[in-house]
User: Fold this.
Amino acid sequence: MTQPLSFAVIGHPVAHSRSPQIHTAFAAQFGIALVYERIDSPEADFEVAVERFFGQSGSGLNVTVPFKERAWQMASARLSARARDAGAVNTLWLDDGQLHGCNTDGVGLVNDLIRLDMPVKGARVLMVGAGGAARGVLGPLLKAGVAHIHVVNRNTARAQSLLDAWVLAHPQDTDKLQAGGFDQVANLAEPDLIINATSSSLQNEELPLPASVFGSQVCAYDMMYGDQPTAFMQQAQQAGSHQVADGLGMLVGQASESFLIWHGCQPNIEPVITQIRAQIKASVR
Ligand code: NDP
Assistant:
């Protein structure tokens, strides 16, 4: 009898990860037999754990906090263009015995925005946050045709260095990007889309944005997700945004891109979003 293919998500901590349920649901759509586990790796042991996994015939690994940059280093000789731009890897696999890496977070976000009918092509985007998630989505947003991205961050220097690094590598995008602090937001032209790429909602905190920025034509997307609308979604709704969404579709979307890399087929994410949403709600009852 053939063994089922072996996959896992590696992180620290990782107990909260929904990836096993997501990939199991995707596999069921195609009748693929797989096992998908969680590997909680001590910080010091990440590289050893990755080598052990693939040494024991593992087929693919998802990588989560805090290891995405170290996964990028491990696969640095064979990175996809998305991973090179993002400076972080969330998907690893072996090809001809060599470790390959990709980053599917950004394309997961873009596909979710399109699914939700939120503005992408030609859109003016206000992106709040300048951490790993913000960096990972810049390239896919620009590739999808957004007109302009203004990055603001609590630590303004971090927003500026994110932008400087991007423009150095992609000088053709210079006119499409700006960076600064929250103090500039009141003077900005109204964006079409505000993306919260910070962890503020994790702390249940609103962002220091003026209510005037959330005009009635503005969509608001929080990368965070939970059993209730996030603090940012509530803030946007109360200030008048006409459509708000959380990042569960991004999570399932990035997983579907990993699945495509590993199995060569693209799952239908809609029923899986519904399933995981129900599981999240049930787990807090
Ligand atoms: P990082 O730790 O790399 O960056 C955190 C960012 O949040 C920084 O810009 C930081 O600002 C900012 N921040 C934190 N707390 C606050 C606050 N109270 N007010 C304003 N800004 C704040 O995290 P990541 O970039 O990796 O992740 C950011 C978020 O995106 C997380 O919530 C994560 O769960 C989510 N995410 C969701 C994904 C999905 O699939 N749905 C995928 C990846 C990430 P400063 O620099 O000033 O400290």
About this structure: Residues 248-263 form the longest helix (16 residues). The chain has a mean pLDDT of 96.
